[in-house]
Amino acid sequence: MTTTDPSVTAREPQGKRRVGDVVFANSAKGSGILILAILAGVAAFLIGQSYDSLAANTANFFTSSEWGANTREAPAFGVAALAFGTVLAAAIALIIATPIAIGIALFIVYYAPRRVAAVLGYVVDLLAAIPSVVYGLWGIGWLVVQLVPFYASLETYLGWIPFFSGPVSTTGRTMLTVGIVLAVMILPIITAMSRDVFQQVPQSHREAALALGATRWEMIRMAVLPFGRPGIIGGAMLGLGRALGETMAVAMILSPSLVISWFLLQSGNQTIAAHIALQYPEATGYGVSALISAGLVLFAITLVVNMAARFVVSRRKEFA
């Protein structure tokens, strides 16, 4: 009597693959190659179009704050002030939005009743669907007026801190106002990632902390936050990337000014994206190429931020 090894009969012939697997694998590979090609094409376009202004520029493009006329005679362009304003506005937004987003995510996951959590999660996600021009209208039409008295109080009580020294702008169109608007815009991104990470905390870790006599907050501090730290950092950096590239809201609120100023309650500073949006319609000659050069700098900054975010998320380790 002969016997047959089940493992042998169940094994598929070597080298035989289903048609669906082959099609799916090639489609996925093609999609990955396509997105890399698009990214390389955008970079090549920006580099090629910015060469003329960089080659003819009479100022140091990376250290100068001058932005000359659009003529072809001795152009002088510098992105230092624009890059400073871009990073400053995004940093303010990140500082304001991150703790609020973490608090909202913790409330939705661990404190709110199920129905309240569902509604609140929907409302937070809805913030991401609002166009940036609407945020700009809200900022310039209502928020700036409300913030002027608050800025006066900041100068009165915290004016000894250089960031809050006066004189306070009477219009409210300051870098701090832009930071607040950007914070509202990136809040859904950080909240969504933090909420997803908090929901993935192993139940055994939470129960172990509670079994040892920890309160709910102590359980969150000892078990939830350490586990979710990489996800929080990744979400914050993705939000930072969004804030760096925001255009319309910033252009509508800030008064154009090519200065490097740390005073958050005074009018001044500008971002790269807003400057391009405001200047491009009337740019000619080397001015167009210079604006594309500024766009290349913004592209590099945003790319570095998003790559860093992906690196942090991919290196997430299982909490032990």
Automatic annotation (TrEMBL):
<comment type="similarity">
    <text>Belongs to the binding-protein-dependent transport system permease family. CysTW subfamily.</text>
</comment>
<keyword id="KW-1003">Cell membrane</keyword>
<keyword id="KW-0813">Transport</keyword>
<dbReference type="GO" id="GO:0005315">
    <property type="term" value="F:phosphate transmembrane transporter activity"/>
</dbReference>
<feature type="transmembrane region" description="Helical">
    <location>
        <begin position="172"/>
        <end position="190"/>
    </location>
</feature>
<feature type="transmembrane region" description="Helical">
    <location>
        <begin position="33"/>
        <end position="51"/>
    </location>
</feature>
<dbReference type="Pfam" id="PF00528">
    <property type="entry name" value="BPD_transp_1"/>
</dbReference>
<keyword id="KW-0472">Membrane</keyword>
<dbReference type="InterPro" id="IPR051124">
    <property type="entry name" value="Phosphate_Transport_Permease"/>
</dbReference>
<keyword id="KW-0812">Transmembrane</keyword>
<dbReference type="GO" id="GO:0006817">
    <property type="term" value="P:phosphate ion transport"/>
</dbReference>
<feature type="domain" description="ABC transmembrane type-1">
    <location>
        <begin position="83"/>
        <end position="309"/>
    </location>
</feature>
<keyword id="KW-1133">Transmembrane helix</keyword>
<feature type="transmembrane region" description="Helical">
    <location>
        <begin position="285"/>
        <end position="309"/>
    </location>
</feature>
<feature type="transmembrane region" description="Helical">
    <location>
        <begin position="79"/>
        <end position="112"/>
    </location>
</feature>
<dbReference type="GO" id="GO:0005886">
    <property type="term" value="C:plasma membrane"/>
</dbReference>
<keyword id="KW-0592">Phosphate transport</keyword>
<protein>
    <recommendedName>
        <fullName>Phosphate transport system permease protein</fullName>
    </recommendedName>
</protein>
<dbReference type="InterPro" id="IPR035906">
    <property type="entry name" value="MetI-like_sf"/>
</dbReference>
<dbReference type="InterPro" id="IPR011864">
    <property type="entry name" value="Phosphate_PstC"/>
</dbReference>
<dbReference type="InterPro" id="IPR000515">
    <property type="entry name" value="MetI-like"/>
</dbReference>
<feature type="transmembrane region" description="Helical">
    <location>
        <begin position="247"/>
        <end position="265"/>
    </location>
</feature>
<feature type="transmembrane region" description="Helical">
    <location>
        <begin position="119"/>
        <end position="152"/>
    </location>
</feature>
<comment type="function">
    <text>Part of the binding-protein-dependent transport system for phosphate; probably responsible for the translocation of the substrate across the membrane.</text>
</comment>
